[in-house]
Amino acid sequence: MTKAITNKQRPGSGTSRIQTQNRQRIITAALEVFSTYGYRGSTVAQIADSASMSKANLLYYFPTKKEIYLSVLEETLSEWLQPLTQINPEGDPADEIWAYVKAKLALSKSNPKASRLFANEVLQGAPMIGNFLRTELRELVSAKCIVIQQWIDQGKLTTVSPMHLIFFIWAATQHYADFSAQTQCLTDDTENLFDDAEHTLKTLIFNGLVPQ
User: Fold this and answer.
1) What is the DSSP track for 83-109?
2) Same domain for 135 and 31?
3) Domain of 31?
């Protein structure tokens, strides 16, 4: 899905299980470091320390910091965009959109660092993934906008801008990851934060999008 980012081949049959595990170990550690310090503020040495391996060993798998960063972004985008690809044109419109919203909210809860990493990249002007945003992401979002518009034309959804509906979903779900420090400070019942968010968003989605 994200070939426009790296154009690198995935590890194939010649990659051992240990090598695959070590690559994933580095990517996991790098996500922690990059999401905390950003690309410019992070070093290969920090990532190696976080992965509990030597810098030389890390560089065997990823020769440069940029390659590590792109691999982390690639994995992040693959995970975050998967729910969007699963919107089914043949399904019930409200149920399909709600399933997407619910999946995005779940990702904000389970992997907030990935969301913050992507947000930081975009805030910097998307220097590493600009081409991906202009090609693969644009094509995917445009295709789903066509589906949503067809539902609207069929009278199954309230008339809204499909593109801005997707923007709304991103803003309403990723907020809980990107601004977690703020939501934690402002919310007394942090234990039920995501349950309350899910209930609120479901109410807004069904009441706002389903024709009465």
Assistant:
1) HHHT--TTS-HHHHHHHHHHHHHHHHH
2) no
3) 9-63
